[in-house]
Specification:
- The chain has three domains: about 80 residues, ADC-like domains (N-terminal domain of TfIIb, Single Sheet); about 170 residues, Rossmann fold (3-Layer(aba) Sandwich); about 190 residues, Dimethylsulfoxide Reductase, domain 2 (3-Layer(aba) Sandwich), CATH 3.40.228.10.
- The chain is about 35% helix and about 15% strand.
- It contains 21 helices and 20 strands.
- Helix 21 links the parallel strand 17 and strand 18.
- Helix 13 crosses helix 14.
- The termini are far apart.
- Bound molecules: iron/sulfur cluster.
- Iron/sulfur cluster (SF4) binds next to helix 3 and helix 8.
Amino acid sequence: MSVGRRAFLQFVGGAVGGTLLSPLPWKLADDSAIWSQNWSWRPSPERGEFTEKPSVCQLCPSACGILVRLVNGKQAVRIRGNSNHPFSKGGICPLGASGLQFVYAPYRIREPLKQTGTRGDPNGFKPISWDEALKEMGTRLAALRQENKAPSVAVITGQSRGSMSDLWRQFMTAYGSPNLFTMPDESDSQRLAARLAFGTAAPFTFAFERADYVLSFGLNLLDGWGPFVRMQNVFSNWRTESAGAVQTELVQIEGRASVTASKANQWVAVNPGTEALFALGLAYVLIESNLYDAGFMSDQVFGFDNWTDAAGNSHEGFKQFVLKHYSPDQVSKETGATAEEIIAIGRKFGAQKSALAVWGQGRGTHASNLYHDLAFMALNLLKGNLKNNGLVSLETPPPFAPLPEAAAVSSTAEGLAGTRLDLASSAKPPLPGNALHSFCDALGGSPAYPLELLLVHEANPAYTMAEPSLFRKAAAKTRMVVSFASTMDETAAMADLILPNHSPLERLDDIIGLPAMPCAFYAIAAPVLAPQL
Ligand code: SF4
């Protein structure tokens, strides 16, 4: 019997249709789900009493309130948002909801690992005991200090908003090394800008909730920037259509088609890196159209108009400088935006009662350009946004007394008085803030003195720095690298010794301040689980 193509297709179609219409596949799927529940190798929580413990998520700087569900008080099975938290109000993101992976993942590092092969070979690590690991660290630290080489020890920490960074500072003070760095973020350049403009080195905060018109210069408000859950809440309020709700307009000025750009009311795709130029074009429109806060500028701001110093030298004011160099036509040529767009946005920004300019690069995990920060700040100054109770302010620390200072041991004084490695070999910058890139750059080139020991805590600079190759070169020139990572990330893979830290759910920690939050914030992240190391 021959079977033609048509008959074959009819047979296959009939067989598939018949099988789907019969109860067989659904019964098999149901049965296999029941059978697989009892497979011994399938992880499942033990039976017992459920309780919930509150804590704070530490997987990003948003510090959302969480409730961790435990079985018999010792096995965590679920993380959900805590609706009593004043800012996250019950919201968490997918990363926070899957935070148990950091505790139970099979790839978690649970014991110290020592590189016994070539540095960088992930298969060269061998487990050693905590006693051996701590002895090796202690011996190395003691030997370096005895040899008066304390400054050749450096620390990079990813925790900048908590007492842990203060403890690192105290440890380095007592040990005698000036080489302590935190991972870069947007607050680095903002601190410098605020110090230049106001004499106080603090990052800016923004009252998004009270704004009716928001100009975002490259800040990815909806792509995971800083206070992620707060921004989701703010944005959903901006889009609420209930009676009386303020319909805040969002204008995204950015060269990239980000999620924020796609959800904004208006997206101005300027040439990359020209956002600050665009801001000065808007400043021109505000000044020229008299749409700025003249009272605030004359009473509270120095240098807006031309001025003469005590020696009789005249200086150009900001107003004259902007009117000379940043007309919409001039700005249009560089930014790619049309002069009409610049004028229309400038007029709207000037006319709105609560218009706010915010800025940053992407998710805020890199320092910005100091001059760009000053340009965006100037736009807010023109609107009077830095008045008391304005839309922009400087971050306020919680009103706590500082931790007692660690006393420098007398033999460490010489090391502390030494110059930080990034400032020792080249012309010193006028504002030497947190400068991890310069440190790695100096170390990878011809450092003034060699680095013997680099400790990397809660950070993965070999992956997350803007230029990871700088860190890789620096690490290659360091005698010994120690990582405190709990998973084999890019930096841990380059280490000689890995001392795994407790997961955030297993340790006592605190969070001081939230990014861009216009009020003081302090939270204690209580441990909810015994260490599972
Ligand atoms: S936004 Fe950040 S703090 Fe909040 S749940 Fe997600 S990872 Fe955790």
